[in-house]
What does this fold into?
Amino acid sequence: MSISKINNLAKVSLIGAPAVGKTTMLKLLSQTKIDKIYLPTQGFDLKTVSCNNMDLKVWDFGGQRAYLNYLEEYLLGSDLVFIVTDSTPKNVLKSKQLVDMAKKIVEEDCPIIAIANKQDLCKDDGRMDQKRVQDVLHTKTYGLTAINSSERDKLMRIIEKELNHAIVRKEMKTIEI
It folds into this structure.
């Protein structure tokens, strides 16, 4: 884990298929205006976000298949990885592969958390709720509607909680040695 105690800096990585809401999450966190027009991320986007006494370097990685070849380099040094899904059954199944890939890349004490995004559409078009997504992915999952600015505080609490748990796990591991 690379959370720096000296400058309280953490790397948060957002990965997922195209058009699942990674860039919208980044804009939500950075309080940037959310566009209604979809523009795919080319390569990656990076923003620094303050979260209490910590600066988060939030990396939004393009979801196109070509970028999967660079996943190891993208995730290197991550303190928290979000696998973002749009909650459709097809996308959730694809996201399972990303969870498995991320587990092979990041350090053991780096949390890999799923975001079941677009929860506002669950009732209308067959998307899966947070619990069903979690059951399929076998990883901790939070529901979110990233396009809704009122969800920012919820997302910030999730990040803070998961990073704090990761720090505690890392410290406990150090004590055991």
About this structure: The mean pLDDT is 88. The chain is about 40% helix and 20% strand. The beta strands are 9-16, 44-51, 54-61, 80-85, 112-116, 141-143. The radius of gyration is 15 Å.
